[in-house]
Design brief:
Length: 286
Amino acid sequence: MFKGFIKKNITIENYEYKIFLKKQIVLAKEYPRLIIVSYLPVKETIKLIKISISTIKKYTTIPYELWVIDNNSPIKNLKWLLRQKGINLVLNRKTPKPPDDKFRESYSNGIALEIARQLVDPETKYFMTLHQDIAVCNNSWLEFLLSKFNDKTKAVGVRLDRKRVTDGVLHVLGYIVDLQIILKNKLSFIPHLPEYDVGDKLIVDLKNMGYEIHASPNTLWEPELVEKIDNNSPLKTLKADRSFNDEGNIFFLHLGRGVLKSQKDSNYFNKTIIEVWYKIIKRYYL
């Protein structure tokens, strides 16, 4: 069906997923693996994956493997993605079946990350989870995040959330974990809703094991940070999560709210938000 792809079956939680894999980059275990979970139900969402991939390619200055795990998007919406060079592309052609249908989106994201975990080199050190509606905008963004790892800190992210876990967890939209610890302790990205969303329990488990986490300042939970952004910056009024490095520079963006979550939501889809996002990032950062 997909020229140049290898067909594989992967079993997760007693359910077999038929995937197609195309590896275009293979690096040594010490280089980070960046994992974007993709779902492109309508043509507008293609702009999201274009922005995330394009900014990562432009602003990442150290070696990395970029993986895109697509969760059964319509084939007509995969054309741009299928043409991309320098990425490892995984097409999961079976829609995940969650224990509870109202948690379908979260469960699907967790399954995509578990598929990636099985496919990357098992000796990989750094494994980064990413949503498709993100952008990076600083040449040292990845080095900055990796610099926060030490003997105690084994998970580093762009945002801390306290919505479900009182003392906070890193949000899976952009965090890096030490994969060797994850594998050794058999931790999972699968959500356990309503208590834990995708990747939440993994972070809680790490903390319970005595490890520390590091989160960057972010405007979602610290809206006062917006005042520190230069008034002439196109990011000053952009309604998106903005993460800051130690020098006070924005290095990571997340569109978040307003993005189409599923085909069922099509009546509520706000095209303007994606259009504005796409135009601003393309004009000022690409």
